[in-house]
């Protein structure tokens, strides 16, 4: 038990270090492969990205301001990009948009009043059995804006 307690800080540092490395790789992926898709929209400057696996979903809340046009772009590594979809909902969980079944990664819109919207990203399961290694890759949510 004492040996385990002595090893615990080392294990924690290894986990944190590997997570930081993966996060840096995702940021690099986002800069190189995704940022150009905002076109004439200015990035909001926030990095929202993570490594996701088959069958996983993630959500984030984002504030959108009235009087601006927005582009929401979901950028995924090719290893998990097939079938990935996203949904945008208001604070009451009313679905505003869904790309499910549409093979779309971009949504251009504006809001009538400043509000927080929920963005949900879903990486469908590939159907791999429990013994198989699940596919994974970086997924980034980019938000661009321009004055409306």
What report would you give on this structure?
There is one protein chain. With 148 residues, the chain is of the alpha+beta class. It has one domain (2-147): Sandwich (Jelly Rolls). 24% of the residues lie in helices and 40% in strands. It has two helices and nine strands; from the N terminus they run αββββαβββββ. It has helices at 2-33, 78-81; strands at residues 42-43, 48-53, 57-64, 68-76, 85-89, 95-98, 106-110, 115-122, 136-147. The strands form two sheets. Strands 1, 2, 4, 7 and 9 form a five-stranded antiparallel beta sheet that branches. The chain has a four-stranded antiparallel beta sheet with strand order 3-8-5-6, with no helix packed on it. A hairpin with a 5-residue loop joins strand 5 (85-89) and strand 6. The N and C termini lie far apart (62 Å). Residues 6-19 have low confidence and may be disordered.
